[in-house]
Write a structure and sequence with these properties.
This protein is of the alpha+beta class and 93 residues long. 33% of the residues lie in helices and 32% in strands. The protein has a four-stranded antiparallel beta sheet.
Amino acid sequence: MYGTVARTRVKPENRQALRDVFQAQRDALMEGFVSSQVLFEDDSDVMWLFATFLDREAYERNADAPAQHERYVQYRALMEEEPEWHDGVIETA
């Protein structure tokens, strides 16, 4: 599998709106998409976003899709800073 991890900041007052955006986007058809999760650090504005795809090709198709850019614009508006992205192969520990 292949995926990405992003670190960013989200003010507490935007967290529910961000959850709502992610929930609304969950039904988007993304070929090869496996799952996504969000982690909010305790007592912090820091958020980690995890997205998993079947393989790198599926990830790259999604990343290059205009529809994904539209989804990104929606959730980026609720973040305090540009996410720091880390892409790579996902292995079982």
